[in-house]
Write a structure and sequence with these properties.
Shape: globular
Largest sheet: 8 strands, mixed
Helix content: 40-55%
């Protein structure tokens, strides 16, 4: 029989990967899955019994990563900076998809463009995932989790540049990254609104890892920032497994649609997963609709409203 003290300790216990619950029979897709937060997310879900697809730009690196995972996994090619690749990945999907985790991203990189001519951070972090999600949505049965960042609050990127989403002529790495992470949250907000309007049981949620030591920071355009982040990675950051916990919490726990999960520690930089707040800009439904409309125009991909009808009929039959 547990003592009072032990019960108190259990109450204080942080949520961890061991609390995910049985995922046997479930299928998940994780983008950007060959390193960092992605591979930690894959490993945790696979260990819990899920079959996990590593959606990666470089299949050779993906296969090497997959060999480190304990559980059922496979590797498929996906380049989020190329809409043709996104369409091919989605077109090849067969059967149900319980969980889509939009994890991949680039951060604070020098100015560059995707294959379709979009600013690389906005194009990869938001538009690629926007297209992928809507194309796969007819298969999704449970939820979509999109990884954002506390950077959506940074002054340099805390609003959408609707008149110049590609930041042509006014590009800075930090502003572009902040805008892309704000876009992730607005996308989640509007996706949940549309799903709810369709009467769908599918949920859209977002998460952020706090400060997690991954390879992401090593591609920063600024040598000064790279040096500072290297120090922070060593002395402040949590590792990739701890950084993946908010994503895993959002992916497996019974949370309301549009929930946002992050670490519970100081400034949300580290700690156990919990529900966290977001900026006013990230909570603006008008901006969310405007971004959605712009994203449809840019990608040529729309919300598959008719896709919900067969599932609703089946559920009622």
């Amino acid at each position: 029989m547990a003592t009072k003290d032990s019960a108190v300790e259990q109450g204080k216990k942080k949520w961890g990967a061991g609390d995910i619950g049985d995922q046997t029979g479930r299928t998940a897709v994780v983008t950007g899955a060959n390193s960092g937060l992605g591979i930690a997310t894959v490993d945790a879900l696979a260990r819990a019994g899920a079959h996990v697809v590593l959606a990666v730009r470089d299949p050779e690196r993906g296969e090497a990563a997959a060999r480190t995972v304990h559980g059922s996994v496979e590797v498929r090619r996906l380049d989020l900076a190329d809409l043709a690749s996104v369409r091919a990945f989605a077109a090849a999907w067969r059967g149900d998809l319980d969980l889509l985790i939009n994890n991949a991203g680039v951060m604070n990189i020098p100015e560059a463009s995707t294959r379709d001519g979009f600013e690389m951070q906005f194009g990869t972090n938001h538009l690629g995932h926007f297209a992928l999600t809507n194309l796969l949505l007819p298969h999704v049965t449970d939820r979509v989790v999109t990884v954002s960042s506390g950077a959506h609050r940074f002054p340099a990127g805390n609003h959408m540049h609707f008149g110049n989403l590609n930041l042509a002529g006014e590009y800075t790495p930090v502003a572009a990254y902040g805008q892309s992470k704000l876009a992730n949250l607005l996308f989640t907000l509007e996706l949940q609104s549309r799903l709810a309007a369709e009467g769908s049981s599918v949920r859209a949620l977002a998460a952020h890892p706090g400060w997690a030591a991954t390879g992401l920071q090593g591609h920063d355009a600024s040598a000064v920032r790279r040096a500072l982040m290297a120090v922070g990675n060593r002395f402040i950051a949590q590792d990739n497994r701890a950084g993946a916990l908010p994503t895993l919490y959002a992916a497996t726990q019974d949370l309301p649609g549009a929930s946002y999960v992050g670490p519970d520690g100081f400034a949300e930089m580290r700690g156990g997963p919990t529900l966290v707040g977001r900026s006013a800009a990230a909570s603006d439904p008008v901006a969310a609709v405007r971004l959605w409309q712009a994203s449809e125009e840019l990608t040529g991909v729309t919300f598959p409203r008719s896709a919900e009808a067969p599932r609703a009929v089946a559920a009622g039959s």
